[in-house]
Specification:
63% of the residues lie in helices and 0% in strands. It is mainly alpha-helical. It has a single domain, classed as Ferritin, core subunit, four-helix bundle (Ferritin, Up-down Bundle), CATH 1.20.1260.10.
Length: 255
């Protein structure tokens, strides 16, 4: 069984891990829909979105490893993805929650893709050329993800009594994790915006799509999740057990 790696604590690396880990873990959850989506077209769409997010995670984690190497020992994308302990992941708690039903996935996709699109748009002008290049490609993918998810949200929210009930329950369950998306974060000089700077634009866009879906925006919650600080939900350990099994059992295996 391969031992865990230790990551560099510089603000730049931590900033990148918050983005890369969020994409990585969300990709893992979306991949769980492969073969289980309600219609064949959506099965393919969700799988393709997972691949897009995985590509974004690869780019950001590779850059994080390169930045680590500037100050000492660096790690490649596979080591960062599969060989860290739970407390060393910096993803939003929102993405590690169990897959849930289709309404849960649609609302989570809408929330996260809107957040990522706003973030990638700003990172496209990053002083770090590699990060700007990653963002330039990723923002196109995020725009599609956002539109796709929002279309489904309106379709379900303004649909049958049952679909609206499921959307409303999922929205209320997920909304308590919103503050973490815009909470205190490591400000990496020149790399990109503070996450808090995205909040007003995000709320405005979410309010518009929720109005179209005839769903009420939930009230703010006093609850604060802390996945970006390495303090995760009870679901994260189970998810990592599945993700990391092969790499830890057969370290550096190739085929």
């Amino acid at each position: 069984m391969s031992a865990s790696i230790h990551i560099h604590a510089s603000p730049s690396v931590q900033y990148l891990l918050r983005i890369g880990d969020t994409c990585l873990i969300h990709a893992q959850r979306l991949a769980e829909w492969c073969g289980h989506a309600p219609i064949l077209e959506e099965d393919i769409a969700l799988s393709n979105m997972a691949l897009d997010l995985l590509g974004q995670a690869r780019g950001v984690l590779t850059l994080a490893g390169q930045m680590e190497a500037r100050d000492g020992e660096g790690h490649d994308e596979d080591q960062l993805a599969f060989l860290r302990d739970e407390r060393d992941y910096r993803n939003l708690t929102l993405v590690e929650l169990p897959r849930g039903d289709f309404a849960f996935t649609v609302i989570r996709n809408t929330m996260l893709s809107t957040w990522l699109r706003l973030l990638w748009e700003r990172l496209a002008s990053s002083s770090e050329a590699e990060l700007a290049a990653i963002a330039g490609k990723a923002v196109k993918e995020a725009r599609y993800h956002q539109q796709h998810a929002a279309d489904w949200l309106v379709r379900l929210g303004d649909g049958t009594d049952e679909s609206q009930r499921r959307c409303s329950e999922a929205l209320n369950a997920l909304w308590r994790y919103v503050p973490e998306m815009f909470g205190a974060d490591a400000v990496a000089s020149g790399l990109g915006p503070r996450f808090a700077d995205l909040q007003d634009a995000w709320l405005a866009e979410m309010r518009e799509v929720l109005d179209d879906a005839t769903l009420a925006m939930p009230a703010a919650s006093a609850f604060r999740s802390e996945g970006t600080l390495g303090r995760h939900s009870e679901h994260m350990g189970h998810l990592l057990t599945t993700m990391q099994h092969l790499q830890r059992s057969f370290p550096e295996a190739v085929w």
